[in-house]
Structure formats: structure tokens, C-alpha cells
Amino acid sequence: MKKNPPVVLTIAGSDNSCGAGVQADLKTITALGGYAQTAITCVVAEVPGRVSAIQAVRPAIVAEQIRLSFEAFPIAAIKTGMLYSTSIIRAVASELSGLKKCPPLVVDPVMVASSGDPLLKSSAIEAYREWIFPFATLVTPNLDELRILSGMPCRDIEEIKSAGASLVARHGCAFLLKGGHLRAKIATDILATSQGFEIFTAPFRRNIDAHGTGCTFSAAIATSLACGQTLPVAVGDAKNYITLAIENALKWKKSTALEHRLSS
Asked: Nearest to residue 141, comparing CAs of 114, 187, 110?
């Protein structure tokens, strides 16, 4: 009898360009041998470099998607992405609190898009800390999100480590501190836990569209955890995966769509 793949639930927004959000998560989870479940929190009209509009899903519908997935599937790991508002965050937390045992949870605290557009209501930042982080196995902030969560400048590796240590002490879960936005020659990510730090590096690739890299990275970690890997191994495997994805990123001529519209 064929063995079923591990099930990974992603709770995140929908990206019509399919480079980020649940679409990126679906691709990643499937590519790494998992079976994806989705709970859609928002519908986002966006393309790389621009967020045009956001429509939130009613919190009760978000909660019902989560509930039904847990009723029907043996979910082995969860990844959260764009949660957007306090009401959605509380709905997600309520479902997680009702579980007999919460599976490993990777929290990508989506606050700001690669384009700089806000993806989280400012009032919801504290809700992340209060309602979601207590369930987290790992939180994966990028540099901007790390500054928001820690209140520290995070201008170099040592300041990033100090911020990470303070967050681990405060929240009791691990933090993956992503240093790609430092734009150094080496892209350095730091896994901060109560036992200390573990460093993961790869060459920094310039002139690459970073749209969706955070979603892909966190989904890869969640899938590896669902497969039974330890957290350091899961982060290392995911680092290798996202590095290959960046190196093989597709490039599109931005004029193509406009030319199509003008000719139609």
C-alpha cells in the first residue's frame, strides 16, 4: 500500500501572480513531497513590486477552513503567512487552541511586502505576539519585521543576534533571523533558540526579484518538519531549497502584459 505524503496546512493570503502566498506554498510543499491544505485569509491583487488591493476573508470562514482540514486530514505541520488583521489572528489562534496537540507551527509574520507595501494592519502586530507566538515552533521575520518585533535597529549581524536573543527570551520559541536585506555578499540567516545560534549562509544574488521568497522559505521549513526532521535540519534543507529557487528564478518582460492589453 502506498504511503500517503505528510500533510502541511498553510494559512495565508492568495496572490494572483502565484509567486507568493498560498500559491507559492502549494508549489513548495508539493515539490518537497508534502500534501498541501490551505486556509485562505485574504485575496490580494498583486504582482512583483506592487500590491494593488487586499480583500480580507471573514474570520469565521478562515476558522472553518482550518477546522475542516483538521477533521479530514492528519496535519503534520502548519505554516502561517499573511494574517492581515487582529480578528483573523484571533480566529486562527482560537482554532489552534482547540486542538488536542498543535503540530509544529512555522510563523512567517507577514507585515511588509518586498515592494514595501504594508500587508498587516498596525493594530495586529501585538495580536501576533499575544495570540500566535505562544503556539509557534519557529518565527521567520525578515529584517524589516525583525526591527518591528524587537524595536532594535538590526544594522549588522551582531545587532540581529541581539534582537533574536531578546525575542527568544520573551516568547519562548525559536526565531529564524533572515539577513538577506542587509545586501552583503553572503546571505546570512541565523537560527536563534534557547540553546544559542546556528548560522546558515549562501551567496547573495543581486538583481533577483525577492517576491515570495519568505513564503517559500517558511513553507519549505514546515514541510521538512512534517517529514520528521529536526528544526536545524529543516532550516538547513529549506535554505538550500530557497537558494536554488533564487538561482533559477524566472524573469519576465514587464512590458508584455501592457502590450497585450494595448493590442486587445
From this structure: 110
pLDDT value of position 200: 94
Give residue for cell 518565527: 139
Count CB-CB contacts under 10 A for residue 184.
Answer: 13
pLDDT of residue 254: 65
Residue with cell 482554532: 95
Alpha carbon of 60 to those of 87, 216, 257: distances in Å? 9, 26, 36
pTM of the model: 0.92
pLDDT at 123: 79
Domains delineated in the chain: 7-263 (3.40.1190.20)
| Contact present, 218 and 79 (Cβ < 8 Å) | yes
Cross-strand partners of 112: 118
User: Are the C-beta atoms of residues 136 and 107 closer than 8 Å to each other?
Assistant: yes
d(CA 224, CA 237): 8
